[in-house]
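Input.
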Amino acid sequence: MSTRRAGLRRWELFIIQHVHIDIGYTHRQETIADYQRQFIAQAVMLALDPAQAAREPDSLFKFTCEGFWAVEQFLAHASQEEREGLLRALRSGLLELSATIAPSPAGHARHARCAAQPASP
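Output.
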């Protein structure tokens, strides 16, 4: 049974797969660089997984690289095959890059406001 309270709006939330780059707060830079390389490698693998073909367009795995610093770390250690996989995932639109070298706290607040919006009637 579904009930709806008068005056409340229904919201549609968009979930964005990404990892936060936080150098020095929880771990040293070398450790964060290694984590970021692993995250991107896993995201590429999931984006290019053949199981994606069976999913509805709104259910596809997608990933956003929060800052280009992480991509640079990945590329510095990636094999040719891993680089080609990254390019395929980017060209498919399942992996996205942000236009910043690293995130800014102000950007997160603005992004959060844009990601939650009232649902269409």
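Confidence is low (pLDDT under 50) at residues 106-118.
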